[in-house]
Write a structure and sequence with these properties.
Blueprint (H helix, E strand, L loop, with lengths): L10 H6 L30 H4 L7 H14 L29 H11 L31 H12 L11 H10 L5 E4 L11 E5 L20 E13 L3 E11 L2 E8 L22 E5 L12
Helix pairs in contact: 3-5, 4-5
Amino acid sequence: MPRKLTVALLAPLCLAACTSQPSSGGGSSAHGGGASGTYGPNSHVPDFATRNFEPFNQQDVVAIAMREWRLFGSPVNDDDPEQRPEPQVAAIKPERAPGLWQRVGEYWWIGMDPSMTEASWSGKHNANGQLTDFVHDGFFAWSAAFISYVMRIAGANDRFPYSPNHSTYINAAASGLSPILRARDPAAYTPKAGDLICVARGRGRQTIRFASLPTSYGFPAHCGYVVATGQNGPPFGHQISIIGGNIDDAVALTHVPTDEQGRLASPAGQSYDPRYPWCAVLEVLYDAPEEPDAGR
């Protein structure tokens, strides 16, 4: 599938470096919405999410993720991030496009705690408003900010460990530190819509598996929201669909192969996906499956 509005040389960087460097506010300090709570206050959260005008529900999380995907042009990316393509030059990267760099800034602004430097980043600016390097932008990877934004806007409040690093909530789920996250074995659990599926990146790709969680350290990773399950069709036959951020500098949909039960790995723990050795499914414990007044 052709690359969309990006520099193809950056494909491995954008997905493999799905963790930002810790800020002065503490990259491992996770904070939530509301007046107070486990992860602290965040004055950037709208009232409808802070006060839960609707219960935190699976339907809203999927709808918000899909809304953001459509905003970026509904790209589908089934490429292998470890396959380095030939360098190409495009007109503009999606995260730096007019209207979209501001949206990435909203992921940071709402998803992070106000005290964190990352809260002031955009899709192309640092906290001082200076343009970031067009090519070497892995330092500003925003895929975890996207996950945090969706959770915050959906009304997870202080129950989700918001962070610029995916490993923060992977470890929180595996250690039971978040009341709404449970780490599940990809070989023994069938992901549901609204769950997160996660993979370690970089050097942890071949070593971090479900049995090694939680870790005592942070690690590069990537997670995506499950938005469709029980699918049959190309490119993989049995598959689910996930949506994640900062995939070729955009919010993109990826198809993920499964077995007939919808599981991501064999009983022996071998991932069915040749691109991603999934280390965990994060089951999200929602207050409700959908809005009580949906459609009215």
